[in-house]
Specification:
Elements lengths: L3 E5 L16 H14 L7 H6 L1 E11 L10 E10 L3 E10 L2 E14 L4 E2 L4 H8 L5
Antiparallel strand pairs: 1-3, 2-5, 3-4, 4-5, 5-6
Length: 135
């Protein structure tokens, strides 16, 4: 299995009064990493992207350690734990090499925004996601 890793830059505004990254922002970090991962899978044109979209059905985050604001980016690792006909589950770690800040999962559904209906994953999408699927 290959994990997608995004080096996410922290923003000064992400920190609370204690210098910790606010817990609500972790979901944004997951979204940003997932979006970067999916860039190579989604169609280039807007119409194609609307027909081959994904929507989040559920997200869970387990916070393991406080993430303090700093200049260096933090790694967000993403991989696929389950892929079905129309849904997939992604797992994440937000971490440095020696420290785990959060573990998370997201359940997503393939969705056509034009018809406002769920859809099945295409063979191209399945092949792309297989590169990141947990064995």
């Amino acid at each position: 299995m290959h994990r997608f890793t995004y080096q996410l830059p922290l923003r000064w505004a992400d920190a609370d009064a204690y210098g910790h990254v606010n817990n609500a922002l972790f979901l944004q970090y997951l979204e940003e990493a997932r979006t970067r991962m999916f860039q190579d899978m989604l169609p280039m044109d807007e119409a194609g992207r609307r027909q081959h979209a994904f929507v989040v059905g559920r997200s869970t985050v387990d916070y393991r350690a406080p993430l303090l604001y700093r200049e260096e980016p933090v790694d967000v690792h993403v991989w696929v734990t389950r892929c079905r006909a129309a849904t997939l589950e992604l797992a994440y770690e937000i971490r440095d090499p020696d420290r785990l800040y959060a573990e998370a999962t997201t359940i997503m559904a393939a969705y056509n925004l034009v018809t406002a209906c769920p859809r099945r994953l295409s063979e191209t999408e399945k092949a792309f996601l297989a590169r990141y699927t947990e064995a």
